[in-house]
Amino acid sequence: MTWEAVLTAYSGSANSWVSTTARAWLLQIPALVPAVNADTVWNDVPDDAPGMELGPVTKVA
User: How far apart are CA 59 and CA 8, in angstroms?
Assistant: First the structure.
């Protein structure tokens, strides 16, 4: 099962908050998460490791 499958199911929810949030995430996932497949090398950290991060890291006190 994929996140897209789960979110697609929730996008049909009768609860408007749930369906709106699921649809919003479905729109965001392609831009935020790199595509992976059978050829993806998981331990291949690029020379520019910070460039691989999805967003800023914030410290919670």
Answer: 32
Query: What CA–CA distance (Å, rounded) separates 11 from 18?
Result: 7
Q: Tokens 């999805």 identify what position?
A: 54
Of 49, 51, 54, the residue nearest 33 (C-alpha): 54
Sign of the CA dihedral running 46, 50, 54, 57: positive
Asked whether the beta carbons of 22 and 15 are under 8 A apart, the reply is no
Q: What is the pLDDT of residues 11-52, one digit of tens each?
A: 999 999 999 999 999 999 988 887 788 887 776 666 776 666
Q: Which residue in 26, 33, 19, 31 sits closest to 4, CA to CA?
A: 26
Looking up tokens 């369906």, which residue turns up?
19
Q: Which two tokens stand for residue 58?
A: 């914030």
